[in-house]
Amino acid sequence: MILYIDYPSWLKPEIIPGLPIRWYALMYLVAFGITYLLFRYQVKKRGLNITKEETGNFFTFVIISLLIGARILGTLGYDPEGYYWRNPWMIFWPFRDGQFGFSGLSYHGGLIGALVGGIIYARWKKIDLVEWSDMVAFGVPLGYTFGRLGNFINGELYGRVTTAPWGVLFPNAAKLPVREAWVRDVMNQVGISNDSVVNGFVNLPRHPSQLYEAFSEGILIFLIFWIISMRCQCFKGFYLSMYIILYGLARFIVEYFRTPDKGMDFPIMLDPGAITDVSGNIITSHLIVSPWNFTTGQIYSFLMIVGGLIAFFFFKKKLKLM
Asked: pTM score, two decimals?
């Protein structure tokens, strides 16, 4: 019996084969567009006098800052070799040793970059940054959903190996050695035959963690915000601080299902025996969950939760004092 889902063969990264137009980039454009439209919806609902031109300038400045922050933390925070720390001038250079270099972006770095960019823009244009940030935070979750769908279409950022019947066999996932007993055990449980073994390695189904994130960090948070907006008038800073808290919490949980970034493994391991094989090697691809082993993403997410809680009580106390 087959207990997994084959990745849809009709899903390709390119929108039109042979042309450099990818679904991933389009999804991020959709994400920014949705966030913009929901920002304008908030402007109208709150009766604010903010023109479309002002909104466009603000979004342009913040998006550029976001991309800069995402690139900086992506290279420096997820570089196990320390290459970019030793060569910081290469952070924004797309090539390395004659080949394409680091291609990822850090969400947490993007958040920091957007906040820093927002602060600079607010001081420059004398706007109410907290209220503007609230309106951005209200729409970001729904836009973010499309970003994670882009990751799924790209077949990247897949999760750890699973025997759950909704596990997906991603064609580009790292192949695993059949000599490992746990790999053979998973093969037997999900119904993968020995015919799938190539040169001693086999592909195993993974958690579709991109879809977990699209729902938990995107749709769910947006629905919570939408329900709250229909029922009460919240203090300034509510949506910004709550978004940081809820995203951090959702991401922290989903990280238990994601494959840790290559070379990063688990910076904090309080229960190392739960993620090692019989030879003592760390297994990062297999879902052997221990609540006491934490990925880099979980560390960043924990800091987000703490920062969001501090911001929440700060804004709430500030409102009472006004």
From this structure: 0.85
